[in-house]
Amino acid sequence: MSVLVRNHVKVSGRPDGKPLMFAHGFGCDQNMWRLVAPAFEDAYKVVLFDYVGAGHSDLSAYDPERYSSLHGYAQDVLDICHELDLTEVSFVGHSVSSLVGVLAANAEPDRFADLVLVGPSPRYIDDEGYVGGFSAQDIEELLESLDSNYLGWSSQMAPVIMGNPERPELGEELANSFCRTDPDIAQRFARVTFLSDNRADLDQCRTRALVLQCADDVIAPEAVGRYVHTALPGSELVLMRATGHCPNLSAPEETIAAIKAFL
Asked: Could you tell me which residue ranges the AB hydrolase-1 domain spans (predicted)?
C-alpha cells in the first residue's frame, strides 16, 4: 500500500518550497491544522497527514505491535519523508506529536531542519524532581474512564483539554474529533501517550527547536514546557497568550506568527 494513501497525505503550497510538515495530536487528524497550514502555502511545501488509526488513514494498516510505542508513530513520519523524498524538513507537532517529531529527528537527524513543539510533554506523570501535571493515580483513572466509556470520556474531557470555556464551540469540535476516532485504537493510543516517558530522548535531540507553551494548559502545564526548553539544547521558548491545549484552533493567528518568527 502507498504510504501516501495509508496516511492520507496531502501536499500543497510551493512544489519547490522547503517542506513544512504538520502533525496532529491524540484523537485528532490533519483537519486540526486547517486554520494554520494555509498561511504557509505561499512559501513552503506544506505536508499534512493522518497517523494510521486517525482521520482518513487506512485503518486496516493499524498494527497494535508497531503502534505500542511512539516510535511506531515516528516511523509514520519517516515513511512519509522517504516517500516524498523530503529533506530539510520543518516539523510542527501538536501535543504528543511534539515527542513523535523528536523521535523522528533523533532517528534521522540529517532529514530535519527544525522542530516546532506545540504543547509538548515528555512525561505526563509526576516523578521525583519532575512535574508532569498528573499523579500516577490521575492517569490510571483517566485511562479507566476512557476504557469504560470512550464517548462519554470524550464529551467530558474535550472541553477541559481545549480550555476557553467562553467559546464552547471549540470544545465541541474537539469532542467530535475524539468521537470520530476508532475507540479501540484511541484507547491504545491514549495508553501509549499518557504512560510515555521520553525525557531521555530530549537530551539526545540536536535539531533546532521552538517550544510553544500555552497559558492554563491542563495537559501540559508551563512547568513542563520550561522543562522541555531546558532539556533541548539551544531551543527557544515562547509563552503564548493563548489558553488551553489547542492554540492551532483557539489562537491560530498567534500560532502562525510564532512559527513564522522562528522559521
From this structure: 22-258
